[in-house]
Amino acid sequence: MRPALLIPCLLTLAAGTARAGELDLNLGLQATTTQWEADHGGGPTLTGTWFFRDWIGASFTGKEQYATIDDRYLSYFSVNAVFRKSWDRVRVAGALGLVHQHEEPGTVVDSMPVESLFGVADGIRHRAGSRAGLQLAVPIRDRAHGDWYIAFDLDATAFAEDTRGPRWMSSAGLSLGFTHDFAQAAPR
To answer: What is the per-residue pLDDT across 30-77, written as a single tens digit (0 to 9) for each?
Structure first.
């Protein structure tokens, strides 16, 4: 019983004082390659991050990409821990996360579009993995509570098995995003 009481007390102490957080949203395009020879593709990506402190946050990354082998679509969902460091106005963020991916051949999407949308069509390969990501963000315009930025994004994903698809994939691309700091006072 004591450990059950000790853990909430430690979490309360570790949380520190209450602080409004910062929202970081970005939309980008990425090129992707995988372990399979000549398996290339890419598509859009969307990431939303909530920073609890200036240096640590949690994010969700979603991608909808196309890959050449099997004429397949990749629906990629990732939940991540994000660590950020700023130098003057340039920010570098690293992410570590867990991935769930649907890989569906184009013929399945064509014949079962609604089922494919919900991830329950015949022939969809569900895959789990882990992810590491890196982002270099450069602000291009200030906002009242944050900024607009462009970023260069890199990530690598390792899947738990290789029987339903390639063992790894990596992506690189550019994104446009904005930050909104809920604790920052508006300029006068």
So the answer is: 999 999 999 999 999 999 999 999 999 999 999 999 999 989 999 999
Contact 35, 67 (CB under 8 A): no
The two three-digit tokens of residue 156, written as one number: 């690598």
Q: What is the pLDDT of residue 77?
A: 97
Question: 76 vs 43, 55, 95, 173, CA distance in Å?
Answer: 11, 25, 15, 15
Query: Which pTM was predicted?
Result: 0.84
Angle at 23 between CA 22 and CA 27, to 5 degrees: 150
Q: Are the C-beta atoms of 82 and 95 separated by less than 8 Å?
A: yes
Give the residue among 122, 149, 121, 148 at the shortest CA–CA distance from 135.
Answer: 149
- CB-based contact 77:47 (threshold 8 Å): no
pLDDT lower than 50: segments of the chain: 1, 10-11, 14
CA distance linking residue 60 with residue 81, whole number of Å: 9
